[in-house]
Amino acid sequence: MPTTQMAYDTAHLIGATVLMMGFALLYQRRVTAVIRTYSFQAMALAAAAAWQAYVQEAPHLYVTALIALVFKGVIVPLALTWLVKRLGMHRTVETALGIGPTMIAGVGLVALSIVLVLPVTAGATSMTRENLALAMSVLLLGLLMMITRRNAVTQVVGFMALENGLILAAVGARGMPFVVEISIAFSVLVAMILFGIFFFRIRERFDSLDLAYLETFRGERQ
Amino acid sequence: MPLALTFDPLLLILGVPLGGALLLVLIPSWQVAAWLNILISAATLGGALSLFVVRPEATPLFFIDDFNIYLVVLTAFVGFTTSAYSAAYIGRESRAKRVSPRHLRFYHAMYQAFLFTMLLALTANNIGVLWVAVEAATLTTVLMVSLYRTREAIEAAWKYFILCSVGIGLALFGTILVYLAAEPVMGDGTAALAWSLMITRAGGFQPELISLAFVFLLVGYGTKVGLAPLHAWLPDAHAEGPTPISAILSGLLLNVALYALLRFKMLIAANTHALQPGPLMIGMGCSSIFVAAFMLYRRGDIKRLFAYSSVEHMGVMTFAFGMGGTVANFAGLLHMTMHSLVKSAIFFAVGLITQSAGTKRIAEIRGLTVSQPFLGWSFVIAVLAIAGLPPMGIFMSEFLVVSSTFAQTPLLAAPVIIGLIVGFGALILRLQGMAFGEPSVLAGYGETVRQSGFKRAVGMAPLVAHLALALVAGIYLPDPLVAWFQAVAKLLG
Fold it and tell me: How do residues B340-354 score in pLDDT, each as one tens digit?
């Protein structure tokens, strides 16, 4: 059993790695690089979950770690890469907001979550506090990516990054029940999204996965 | 009575639709599946009604209290009537070759799976299970919305999927925050997420954390309720899916999401130091009423028109629950029930209309009362009911919302009244064109008109039943029902 201080420091280090990967996702210019970065983020998340499992002596979190490692770290990136090839999608990331402004907005969001979370959790243990701030930053960065990136694949990756933030928050909450069930439920959701892209052949139907095409659809097309 | 003690209605309510979904995947013939679908829904309704006789003990996972029992019954009832309507509707669609038998197999299985997830959400005691159920409800409906496989349907399904997934994600974050706020008081383990235990000790939760949690929950579950400005998915999903699905989306799913939000509202209201959830809900409610009321004017698509009307009514309910107090809560509960019944009735009528007219464009649908008198007049009555004309139930609930608001804060009543009047105008304007005047050519399947006897009756019966219930509720609410609505309203605070 590691000392409390070391448990905190390591948890924060791993959490910060997840956050760094969240930033790295924002400045990638190629879709394959986005997918690879996501894979790294998922692996860092797996490490975070495993560390929490060890520190909290909660063996069920190892299942969450395993799901993060195998499903999100390996299977999903492989499936996405295959999809991009198979459906012949654009290989470059199309942005709605340039990379510089996106990064600045990202820094702003991290600051926001720190400002928001730290005073609110004054009563909680420092483990929970900083972990929550990190998790919320990852979540908001995922949301930012969904908003500022146009291709459906990058949006999906943004959603999965958001979800990584959620799992990070859930594993950090000491003794939270249902974490495993929740991560399984999310994996089903992600699998469905990937399946949906393939099954609906969004590429073929819309000629492009660029969601700007979706935006032309306001339903009042007459 | 040892028999009554061992009988657990929850098993019936949750087990039947789940088993039904698995069974329906295996049935290749859609005709058989449609009949089975009705039977399964009827059995579920039976299970729901048995709750009045035998109320199961609360466990950390499931519980039944005065509040959710009525939503369970309402959900099972509308699920049953819609399954009957769906059988007739899907039959016509299938003969017109708009859907393939393979897709129909999934459709019926998903229908039951969807009912299962909603009932699971309603009976869940554990807020983690509640979240998983709402997520699963999204998944099952996405598959049904995309049934027609047209470009528009897939776009609508995709939009629905992505927006609601984000909403669901934020709701989960809120749930985690609630756990963190509760953990010092409740300790860890499954009990820490059990609502019925949390509510007794909510006063000791960390107020700041639970306030932050509520913001996430409001945005997250609010997306699913369809509150403006988070409603973008709603009109598309309603318009492009098959009409029976529009009926249960509007009539049931939105209620379930609002129910989830209300459970959390009760937790936060029980904590005197936390932020007041009321003003936030009032704000979201007002914006929904306003946005939807003005949006109603420019709709060219009949299903989209009523989808926006759903946004408006969910706004009214959120507003009422945000106001709080016994009368406003009573009005909100009544409105929830009436809107479920009337809005699904409208979609039943709209389905028949679009099938016979062969178009969803309002401009091309004219003179329904002349060309199809029974359907046309039912439609007129249903639209007048949803617009809030007496003597239907919606008038009563809206009247109560407005009058209780006047009693508490008169200024807040103004936006609601204006929004309701604007929405009323839009609906009447559209109704006039569609219902009266020179009838347009019925370019649809034709079958709807020619079809006679039993099948036509099955198609129309749910519509008539819903309208009759709404009418009865508007004229006379039985005393036990009133007393019981009041008890729930008190519970809601």
Answer: 999 999 999 999 888
